[in-house]
Amino acid sequence: MTHTISLTVNGKAHCSVVEPRLLLVHYLRDVLGLTGTNIGCDTSQCGSCTVHLDGEAVKACTVLAVQADGATIKTIEGMASPTSLHPLQEAFREEHGLQCGYCTPGMIMAADALLRHNHKPSEAQIRQGLEGNMCRCTGYQNIVKAVQNAALKMA
Amino acid sequence: MYPSSFEYYRAESVREAAKLLKQHPGAKLLAGGHSIIPLLKLRQTEVSALIDIGRIADLRAINGGMIGACCTYAQVAAAGGLPAALTEAASHVGDPAVRARGTIGGGVAHADPASDLPTVLLALNAKFHISKGRTARVVPAIKFFTGLYETALKEGELLVAIEVDAEARGTGSAYAKLENPASRYAMVGAAASVTIVNGVCTDASVAVGGLTTHAWRSKRVAGALLETTLDADSISKASKRIVKELPDDLLGDMHASADYRRAMSQVFVERAVTAAAARAKK
User: Fold this and answer.
1) Which residues of B have a CB under 8 Å from any CB of A?
2) CA A107 to CA B224: how far, in whole Å?
3) Contact criterion met (CB < 8 Å) for A20 and B100
4) CB–CB of B2 and A21 under 8 A?
5) Which part of chain A is CATH 1.10.150.120?
6) Residue B117 falls within a domain, yes or no?
7) In A46, A88, B84, B248, which residue has its Cα 20 to 30 A from B205's Cα atom?
8) Under an 8 A CB cutoff, do A132 and B6 touch?
């Protein structure tokens, strides 16, 4: 049996008919075409699929689309307008916080949630806050620098 | 990865959830989904239906020591007035995104031998409030965890709350774990709660996880702590007892062998008891 869900994604209201087993990450990518959110490990560990659900960073591979009925979702596409960059995106560019870029959307969504909870995180707090996001290029030093840079920009 | 197909029902109350469970044999409950969704995706389990209890307001509140089953780890970690071991363990489950969705009730009902909360709740002698709709019962932690992914929950029942006592002056608790660096699951987890009266330990409770099929209480370590001043020497001596007390067949895998876990059990029990004692002495 299918279900009708209504949710707001990046400020736009959507109403869709979904199977219960459809994962939020597949809904975002395959139904709405928002392919900025990546699928990495698919086992709730790597954080590539991190999006905001009602303001909290969550792993979209471990949420059913039906669970997000009524929710407000923000993905990497909703961080800035097409002609500008979010301060976190700017900071990742300036500090070379990405190599292959696969983990970057998830890193930025997790970092944004982290900075909302803690405006001035220490290096250790940034590392702890991003512990659910893996960079297989192992570019963590510059990712941490990028978040520190963004914290200053957003202060 | 897609799970195989299932039906989905959203319950608005505990009674409705119990009714749906009765109507749909083979259904499982869904709260945060951080145990069941990965299992469904990996096709390690199949369900005919999921009954979503994640929006039932009664199950999402913390009132004193009564923690609704659908409270997230983040909620438990941020709540004041709960035993220190519980706050500590809840703030170290998985990572921030997992803690934002995963629930305490879902985690303990799943009863993964490597999860953190069962160990802590066993050390704290928590009470598990279970409902079947019209009837309810309370099960103590020592009887709740019964086996590998098995609990005292019976067909048609749901866990509604977990009750812990507030820590009085002179009582302290702590949790220490050797974690898998990727998943943060405990390869060895140790929880301790101790009470000091007039400088002497009058009550002690110690539990370990990640070692046996389910959270496991150590009687020998707790017994050896009693009547001591909980100084470093007596904690160290008492903690050594866990090594021989543990059963012969411990869990082991590519991340940590059974022998390594056994050796580490002593180290993490000592760390947990030391931290609990320091809190009790404050």
Assistant:
1) 1-8, 10, 30, 33-34, 37-38, 40-42, 50, 52, 54, 74, 94-98, 100-101, 182-184
2) 47
3) no
4) yes
5) 87-154
6) no
7) B248
8) no
Task: Indicate if B158 and B176 belong to the same structural domain.
Answer: no
CA distance B101 to chain A (A): 7
Distance (Å) from the C-alpha of residue B250 to the closest C-alpha of chain A?
26
Q: Report pLDDT for A155.
A: 87
Whole-number Å distance between alpha carbons of B28 and B11: 12
Instruction: Note down the domain range covering B276.
Output: 171-281
**Phi and psi at residue A131, in whole multiples of 5°?**
-70, -15
CB contact under 8 A, A58 and B184: no
* Cβ contact B213:B147 at 8 Å: yes
**Number of residues written out for chain B:** 282
Give the tens place of pLDDT for each residue, B186-231.
999 999 999 999 999 999 999 999 999 999 999 999 999 999 999 9
Q: Is A1 close to B97, i.e. CB distance below 8 A?
A: no
Token look-up 């190599």 returns: A99
One domain for residues B67 and B205:
no
Task: Kindly compute the dihedral angle of the four CA atoms of residues B42, B45, B48, B50, in this order, to the nearest 10 degrees.
Answer: -70
Do B153 and B187 fall within a single domain? no
| Residue B90: CATH number of its domain | 3.30.465.10
Contact B54 A67 (CB under 8 A): yes
The Cα B61–Cα B71 span in angstroms is: 6
Please tell me the pTM assigned to this model: 0.96
Q: Which residue of A has its CA nearest to B37?
A: A62
Q: Do B85 and B218 have their domain in common?
A: no
State which residue of chain B sits closest to A129, comparing Cα positions.
B96
- Which of the four CATH numbers 1.10.443.10, 3.60.70.12, 1.10.150.120, 3.60.9.10 does domain A87-154 have? 1.10.150.120
Task: Summarize the confidence of residues A89-97 as an average pLDDT.
Answer: 97
How many structural domains does chain B have? 2
* pLDDT-derived band at B181, boundaries 50, 70, 90: confident
- The model's pLDDT over B19-38, given as tens digits with 9 standing for 90+, comes to 999 999 999 999 999 999 99
User: What is the domain class of A3-76 according to CATH?
Assistant: alpha beta
Which residues of B fall within a CB distance of 8 Å from A42? Answer: 1, 41
